[in-house]
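Hey all, sorry for the wall of text incoming. These are the two entities for the joint prediction.
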Amino acid sequence: MKRKDLISQIKRKKSFLCIGLDTDINKIPKFLLDLEDPIFEFNKKIIDATNSYCVAYKPNIAFYESEGLNGWKALEKTIKYINSNFPEIFTIADAKRGDIGNTSSMYAKAYFDTLNFDSITINPYMGKDSVEPFLDYKNKHTILLALTSNLGAFDFQTKNVDKTSHQFYYEVIKTSTNWKNSSQLMYVVGATKASYLREIRNIIPNNFLLIPGIGAQGGDLKDVCKNGMNNDVGLLVNSSRSIIFASTGSDFDLISAKKAQEIQSQMENILSSRGLV
Amino acid sequence: MKRKDLISQIKRKKSFLCIGLDTDINKIPKFLLDLEDPIFEFNKKIIDATNSYCVAYKPNIAFYESEGLNGWKALEKTIKYINSNFPEIFTIADAKRGDIGNTSSMYAKAYFDTLNFDSITINPYMGKDSVEPFLDYKNKHTILLALTSNLGAFDFQTKNVDKTSHQFYYEVIKTSTNWKNSSQLMYVVGATKASYLREIRNIIPNNFLLIPGIGAQGGDLKDVCKNGMNNDVGLLVNSSRSIIFASTGSDFDLISAKKAQEIQSQMENILSSRGLV
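and here's what came out:
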């Protein structure tokens, strides 16, 4: 998907919500467990109910891998279902991959060719040659971990580099802007770290940011938008558990849709107040 | 597997060779492509031919994911085959995973429970809470990326931290020694960075190191052993492409075995000269 098509979708739906499909088989409604493929059936219901309120879905690959072959089948069916029925939706493989060049090429093949996701999250620790195989794909997007939403982000990402006052996550972002096709980079910045966003926008005013941590993890939407939004909106704000596991009743999909609509409505207010829609 | 059983195996086989199963369907002998599961059949032949010369196999997960469902099936069959037929072999999922706690728990379930690997490679960028779910498993081993074998290692891993003369990879190792069950940690240090090993051994004299980069990537075995070996051997030296793709002929497995035996023989000499066998 082209960047401009993502922006069009955001303006049309008045939403920059990404819904995380962290489909934990132990948390989905029990009555689905009798079906042949409960994980896919859950995802399908959630997607059917919420797609008009969000612009992106982000399957979290760990939840599929943990179920082995059945999980992988459910992942394949889920991405095919989205691509076939809602081609305007931006898809994110939340995989946090990254390895030496010949191996990263294989991950790129897995997620961009075989599964046909629009984007993938990538860990920057192994540097340029571990990321560039993903950047080789045209109209695909590489979402680099910068400052993550968890407590462990403070273990290494916020250490100062050399004798500068720059922190490590800042060095990652700054360095990556020199890589080829760096306009295809997006960055993960946790909503729980909203105060860092202003500084980040100084280095990368234009790139999209994927913001996890709204909802279950406690981040605040207004703070994120105040510090991180740009003239193209430039944000994809993710919520997973607080939407998809809002209910385990027979109408779980409708409750999820209601939660998604509430966030979309807050997003619409913010976009309106900034004259972006 | 317990650490002491790994050490016993090393001493019995006079080898600390790990063979990387980076099974690229485009590089395996063409006559295998007619079989129902060429990736598994290739692995089986390689394992049958080489298991007496090595102590560990390391499937590189990217090569399986890139083939989708068929790749995942081949991975499942490969690990089952090793565990059933060669239970003394140490198995490494070269996955380079790592995510927020609830997601890392799912990856741990995938590789330690569902697939039953002995160990997994983990990226430290997201810090303590992204690694600890793996350390919760008894008799399973978490192999943390420290200093990788690729050129991109110099992008971030070797930056100095704060005003110290410590580099980032050093900070990762030092910090991780304070995590719970840190005796179950092993570390990846590229053979192409052998000169760093002496300094690394000062912080972690006892932990095993997984050393990629011998062979196709150009690292030197003697340098690695001189600087990295300890009294328990403490090294697993990996070779992938230069062993498994040594030939594409009908006797490819025997040629691979010959390559593996050559390395085992060099290892035996080193172990003997140090009085370790």
